[in-house]
Every structure is written in structure tokens, then in C-alpha cells.
Specification:
Blueprint: E1 3-6, H1 16-25, E2 31-36, H2 48-57, E3 62-67, H3 75-80, E4 85-89, H4 96-105, E5 109-114, E6 132-136, H5 151-164, E7 170-174, H6 182-188, E8 192-195, H7 197-200, H8 205-216
Parallel strand pairs: 1-8, 2-3, 3-4, 4-5, 5-6, 6-7, 7-8
Helix pairs in contact: 1-2
Bound molecules: D-xylitol-5-phosphate and zinc ion.
Length: about 220
């Protein structure tokens, strides 16, 4: 079963708790939380306080995506606020191995994200340490951007590497996920999918999530 993680970046922030509960009722698996610092990416979003409020609104795991420099300064606060997993960007972490260890020591699942231009080989020496790789299918910073097909070979090569090492690795794709783009990502070996504008921009969250699931299982249509 694919894991569907609606991104609250595209939710109505004035009614955030309701918006989170609505996707939970609609069948979401995780809540994806996009944290941006105005430095690693050209946008500013939310901090640990909002994660704490999200934690109180749902029982779903909170999938926290840190698009920030020096994530070691804030990882403890996000775990404390209720993050289930914390994902840092390889490009933002000169000491990536240490960042992963820190998140694990804090008791959360650790993820690493790769920008579109970053090769999978950047993870050669840490793949065994992470629970999740978040493959960016847009340049991070904003919701609603067009999907970049360059991720297909990246997903496939990550899945191959994980299989060769016998790892139970979760591969998540983030950016431009729709009923058209999710199927080939799933086929290439991804098992979790962030969907911001596709879910929150739809009039019926349950129907949108249903279409994403159906596109991953075309044989059952
Ligand atoms: C982009 C964020 C994504 C974003 C996805 O920087 O990491 O999680 O919210 O939004 P959509 O699904 O609209 O591309
Ligand atoms: Zn994200």
C-alpha cells in the first residue's frame, strides 16, 4: 500500500487543525510538514509551535521536512513537539552523518532529502543509517510546482541500492504529485508520496487521495 502524506503547506492555515483532521478522515497516512527558513529555500513557513498544534489535532504520524540550514539547532525542538520522523537536506548538511545520528538519538526516525540536482551517490555512506530518503521532484520552496521526471532513475537506483544492501528503506517523493505522476514513481520503487496542492487544492480530499491510491494499483481498476 502506498503511503499518502498530504502537505499542510497547501492547507488553509487559518483553519489548520480542521484541515489536518479533514485529511485524516479522508484516509491520509502521514501529515507532511514543510519547514522553511528563508535561507536554504527562498520561503519562510512554520516552526515547532505549529508542529505541536498539529500533534494535538491528529493521531497520524507527523512527517517533518526540514528545508533549513543548520538543522541540528532545531531538530530537538521538532522531536519534542511531536515529529515522528525528521528529514534533513543532504545539501544543507556538511556533517550529514552527525545530523542523522542526532535525530536517531533523539528517538525519531531519520530521513535525508535530495534536491533534483543532487545525485543518489551522495547517500552512499549513510544509506544504512536512514529510515527514509525523500526524493525531491521539484526544487524545494513552494507548493504547486511542476513535477520533474528526472526523479524516476533516481528512485530506481535508490531502490536497487537498498535491495542490494537488504535495507527496509522508505523512499518518499515530494513535489508535483498527481494521479498522473504518482504511478510511475510507485513503479520505479517509491512507497510514500507527498501531495500538497493535489489534495488540498481539490474540492474532495477523500476522492483525491482515492485517485492517488488507485493510480498506484492500476491492475485493480
Ligand atoms: C516543496 C515542499 C513540498 C510541497 C509539495 O518545497 O517540500 O512538500 O508542499 O507541494 P505540491 O504537492 O503542491 O507540489
Ligand atoms: Zn516537503
Amino acid at each position: 500500500m502506498p503511503i499518502i502524506a498530504p502537505s499542510i503547506l497547501s492547507a488553509d492555515f487559518g483553519r489548520l487543525a480542521d484541515e489536518i483532521r479533514a485529511v485524516e478522515r479522508a484516509g491520509a497516512d502521514w501529515i507532511h510538514v514543510d519547514v522553511m527558513d528563508g535561507r536554504f529555500v527562498p520561503n519562510l513557513t512554520i516552526g515547532p509551535l505549529v508542529v505541536r498544534a498539529a500533534r494535538a489535532a491528529t493521531r497520524l504520524p507527523l512527517d517533518v521536512h526540514l528545508m533549513i540550514v543548520e538543522p541540528e539547532r532545531y531538530a530537538p525542538a521538532f522531536v519534542e513537539a511531536g515529529a515522528y520522523q525528521v528529514t534533513v537536506h543532504a545539501e544543507a548538511c556538511p556533517h550529514l552523518h552527525r545530523n542523522i545520528q542526532q535525530i536517531r538519538d533523539l528517538g525519531a526516525r531519520a530521513g535525508v532529502s535530495l534536491n533534483p540536482a543532487t545525485p543518489v551517490s551522495a547517500l552512499d555512506h549513510v544509506l544504512d543509517l536512514v529510515d527514509l530518503v525523500l526524493v525531491m521532484s521539484v526544487n524545494p520552496g513552494f507548493g504547486g510546482q511542476a513535477f520533474l521526471p528526472l526523479v524516476f532513475p533516481k528512485i530506481a537506483s535508490l531502490r536497487r541500492a537498498a535491495d542490494q544492501r537488504g535495507l527496509d528503506l522508505c523512499i518518499e517523493v515530494d513535489g508535483g504529485i498527481t494521479h498522473d505522476t504518482i504511478g510511475p514513481c510507485h513503479e520505479a520503487g517509491a512507497d510514500a508520496f507527498v501531495a500538497g496542492s493535489y489534495v488540498y487544492g481539490s474540492g474532495d480530499y477523500g476522492a483525491a487521495i482515492g485517485r492517488l491510491r488507485a493510480a498506484c494499483a492500476p491492475e485493480t481498476l
